[in-house]
Amino acid sequence: MNVQVGNKLYMKKPHPCGSNCFEVLRVGTDFRLRCCGCGREIMAPRVKIEKSIRRVETPENKE
Questions:
Q1: pLDDT value of position 59
Q2: In a 10 Å sphere around its CB, with 0-12 CB exposed, 13-18 middle and 19+ buried, how is residue 49 labelled?
Q3: Which of 61, 25, 63, 19 lies closest to 44, judged by CA?
Q4: How much is the pTM?
Q5: What's the half-sphere exposure (Cβ side, CA atoms, 13 Å) at 40?
Q6: CA 45 from centre of chain
Q7: CA distance 11 to 4
Q8: How high is the mean pLDDT of the chain?
Q9: Across the beta sheet with 53-57, what order do the strands follow?
Q10: What does the chain look like in DSSP terms, one character per residue?
Q11: Per-residue model confidence (pLDDT) at position 14
Q12: Residues of 5-38 as b/e, b for ≥16 C-beta within 10 angstroms?
């Protein structure tokens, strides 16, 4: 999966604040994501995040 820093990820399940949009801050074995709703940052394993991605929005192709 081609995920890069700056992309917005829309997940299958929402964050506890209610938002399902996350901004990618770091990629590698782990992802560091910032919730677009409350601003909280999380780190999670790449495998877990890739399974729960519904849509990837790059800064160039915002819909």
A1: 85
A2: buried
A3: 25
A4: 0.87
A5: 10
A6: 12
A7: 16
A8: 92
A9: 41-45, 30-35, 21-26, 8-11, 53-57
A10: ----TT-EEEESS--TTS--EEEEEE-SSEEEEEETTT--EEEEEHHHHHHHEEEEE-STT--
A11: 93
A12: eebbbbbeeebeeebbbbbbeeeeeebbbbbbee
Contact 10, 1 (CB under 8 A): no
Residue that is written with structure tokens 């940052």 in the block:
41
Could you tell me which residues are beta bridge partners of residue 22? 9, 35
Q: Give the strand pairing for 30-35 and 8-11.
A: unpaired
**28-44 residue pLDDT tens:** 999 999 999 999 999 99
